[in-house]
Every structure is written in C-alpha cells, then in structure tokens.
Amino acid sequence: MTFEIKEDFLLDGKPFKILSGAIHYFRVHPSDWEHSLFNLKALGFNTVETYVPWNAHETKEGVFNFEGILDLEKFIQTAADTGLYVILRPSPYICAEWEFGGLPAWLLEKNCRIRSSDPNYLEYVEKYYHVLLPKVTPFQMENGGPIIMMQVENEYGSYGEDKEYLQAMVTLMRNNGVTVPLFTSDGAWLATLRAGSMDEQDILSTGNFGSKGQLNFKNLTSFHQNNNKKWPLMCMEFWDGWFNRWGEPIVTRDPEELGEAVREVLMIGSINLYMFHGGTNFGFMNGCSARGTKDLPQVTSYDYGAPLDEQGNPTEKYTVIKNVIHEMFPDIVQTAPKVKSTIEKSSIQLTNKVALFEVLEEISERHTTKYPANMEYFEQYYGYMVYRTKFLKDATEERFRIIDGRDRAQIYLNKSYVTTQYQEEIGDDIQLALSRSENQVDILMENMGRVNYGHKLLADTQRKGIRTGVMMDLHFMLNWEQFSINFEKLDRIDFSKEWQKNNPAFYQYKFELDAVEDTFLDISKFGKGIALINGVNLGRFWEKGPYLTLYIPKALLKKGENELIIFETEGTYSETINLSSAPIVLDLSQEE
C-alpha cells in the first residue's frame, strides 16, 4: 500500500480521512496494549498515534532500553495486528506532560543548547537516532508496515524558530532510513506556524487545538496558502481533556460539547484525539508545569479525561464520539468495546516498617565531596538524594540555609525532623537548636519532576538537588556525603532495624490474592511518597490530591503472595491499607 500527502491524504491513491487516537505505549502496561488498541478500532478509528520518549529509552547516556513497557516495535506490531495505521512522533522533545518533555536529564550536564542547531546537541540526537530509527523504519508502509507519517519536531513554534535545526532533524531522519511523509505540529496561529513549520519543503504543517475547529482550520488554510501549498487539514492534537496538577481540582469537559467539537473538526479535516487513552506516569516520569517563578508538578495519573479512563475502560466521552462517527460515517464498522474488571481487598495489615536513615547505606550509592553537588552530577536523574554532613557546635542556636536547591528539602538534625522547604522557600533561614557538641544534619532532597514545556527547559532550575551549597552562620559547610537512593535495591532492607516518628520510612505490606485483576491502591491515609508493588514503582502520591489512589494493572499482581512497599516521607502512615475497585478522588473544587 501507499500513503501520500497531496491536496488530500491518499491511501493507495484514494482520499483517506485520518481518524486517529493517541495511546502512549510507555504509559500503558504491555499486557493492556491490545485492549486499548482494540477499543480504538471498535470506535471506528483507523490510526493510532504515539510519541517516543528519549529519556525513557536512554535514561543513562549510551545505555538503551527497548524492553517491556518500552518495546516500541511490539507496540507497533500490535497496532498493525489490530488493523490500525500508525503515526509516529519520534522527535527528541515530546512535551506530553512527561518528565523534561522526554529529553534525557543527562543532557543537563552537557555543554549544549537543547532543541537547537548546536552541533553538540545534534550529535547526541544523532547517536540516539542511530539506535531508534532502524527499529521503526521496517514498519513503514513501503515495507508493508503500518507507519504512515512521522513527526520532525513537536510544537517547535512555541519554543524556537531555528530552521537550521529543523532541517538538521529532517536530514537525520532521512539519512537513517525514514521515507514516509513528515509533518510538524504547532498551535494553529500565525506566529507558531511560521516559527515551527518548514514552509519551503513538502513537510506537512498540522495544528494542535481542542475547540473552534472552523477558526483554527481557517488559520491553518491561510498559512498553507501563503506558502503556496494545497495541503489537507489535520488537527494533530485535538485536546479532548486535560492534565492535572497536585492540589488542584480535576479538569473536566462536558462529553456532549466535546462530541460537537469533534464533529466540527471532522466536517473539514482529519483528527488525532489527544488523548484516546492517557494511562499512567509510572515511576518518576510525571511532568511539571512552569508558572512564573514556580514549577508545578503534575500528578501520577494521566487519565486526562480521555475516551478511555486511566484503566483503559470506555467513558461517556467514548460513547458520544462513537455516536458522532456513526452519524457522520455510517459505513464505518464499529464494534462493542472491551471492558476490564477490578478487584478490591480491605484491611491489608502492615508487616514491617523501618526508618530511611537506618537502612540508607544498604539501598544507596554513596558519594563523598567537599561541597554538595547536584543530583545529575552523580547520575541520580530522578527520585531522591540524601545529603549528610557533620559539624561541631559553636552556639546553642545556629542559622542554617540551603543555597540554591530543587525541588523539596526535608531537614533533619541528628535524625530528628526540623522542617520542610519547597523551591520557593529554599534559601530562607532555618534556626537549628543545638544541644550536642557534635551534630549530624541530613537533607532529603526530592526531584518532583522537570518542566515539560516552555523556556524553562533551558533553565538552570531543572538541575535538581543542592546546586550551590549549604551555609551555617555565614560560611559554607564542607565534607558531604551524598546518598543516591536506588529503589531497585529494596530487597536489601533490614526491617528489624528501628522506625522513628516523623522520619521518612519504608512500610511493607504482604498479602495473598486468589485471583488478579486491575485495582487501585488507596493511599489516602499516607502523606507523600511513592509505592512499589512487587518491585515496580507505581508512581508518586501526595495527600494534597486530587487523586488518592494509584492504579495497579493486573499484570503487576500475582496469584498468591504480593509485596507492597511504600516509601513515605512525612511520617504519616496506616497500620492497614486497602485495594479499591475504583479511583478515589479528593474534591478540591470548593477550594478554588
């Protein structure tokens, strides 16, 4: 088969309307890919779109991972087996409310300007593409595969206008075997289209928006005409919902209003629903919004208010869109969607607990330096690091300050809690009352997620941990130990050691299951931290809400004994914990 972009999209020479939905393979457990793709096909859609997150595939420089939830080739093949075409967006930057917009954090330690024609940056992209693109080019349509288009860069017009960079990206893709049509996607107004598009080449310009289809397509048409192009119109990201941040109400959208907005787009052009199935930001991969001087981390759930919920089951929006498709295109075959079930289990008893500082040596990599260094310096790109030093008492009370740190600092004097500071408070004075002649200070630093959009991608603030130093009185303190906590070493924890009130700690729960299905971990009685089920990091939780549960795909559970370990940083925990059959959401709407 052939796919071309002329005055219309052409599949085997015939006009083709793209009905696409976004499913990010890296946010959905591989055992559930077929379920989500089937439900997309059942809706009557013909294409699936996905980003490719560079930072997940090359977390450490030169070390690549394409296994398990990162098996992109398997995802593409599953889409083909389901009868779907694929739009692939392998650009180095993806935004996507994903940690650092998909850029690997190790770039922060390199001498390069990201998302630019800087030769140093392009060299890193080239090395990545030498590994990535040979894996996907065999799936291009000319090779009998499902891939019909690939993206050059993502919403570049909202960031830069370096056409030399865009051309370099095209050259890298073509030199590495990409033959399918290429496209760019930007906000559908002149400034972003002009900055982010490649108007002198046959690279399709598409628009991203979530409403006002006629107006946005009119803007896109005018831009095409101004560049002497007669191109088909496509909304590459039609935002059918939105992401959520900690401590804010869940963003909602009326399903009927959405249905009419989808109809408006489809009367004129093609569509990619963003998202169709949002999924979950497992581990530490949630993104972060930049608002003024503050960075606002996003939540673990990427439910997005999509046609499929976080678990992958149809919502009311699914039904509304399905009806719109049937009314507009009655010849399209639609089938009943698949629905997954859930289980619940109450009063799972706490098995063990132990304070972090008691087991820190066993579960960390230890580094010693004269001055404290940022987390990236030690290749601790995500999660937590403990900074420790010892000092002599000079007065009964001392002025203590962290100079330039991100994102969250918890300070302990002789293993007793003192205070917590967030990014906007770090640098404020802390008064330490000293009763001992020799003292130890521990600082638990948390990277709460790097920004995924905007100018702060270049900001020094995206380096995490302590970046300048720590002062006592008027001088910088020396001789630091830094402990990079490694959550893959939790099997080394000795739970016979002490637990201490108001300290960060590990809580272990063991429980039996006769049968496994999806479920939701109720963490409403805990403060802040992460949860791991059978060794897999489910993601962050925080009592601020709005979500008070973490989604557990059934593939992560076992018949028989299961182990849950919660790392909680506030000293707030429960002797029992529950598995819920549905998400638990804190209503924050009255607080706005």
UniProtKB/TrEMBL annotation:
Organism listed in the record: Enterococcus alishanensis
UniProt cross-references to PROSITE patterns, sorted A to Z: GLYCOSYL_HYDROL_F35
Keywords, comma-separated and alphabetical: Glycosidase, Hydrolase
Beta-galactosidase 1-like first all-beta domain: residues covered: 372-485
Domain Beta-galactosidase galactose-binding: 504-562
Classification via Pfam families: BetaGal_ABD_1, BetaGal_gal-bd, Glyco_hydro_35
Name of the protein in its database record: Beta-galactosidase
Glycoside hydrolase 35 catalytic domain segment(s): 9-327
Family: Belongs to the glycosyl hydrolase 35 family.
Keyword Hydrolase: yes
Lineage: superkingdom: Bacteria
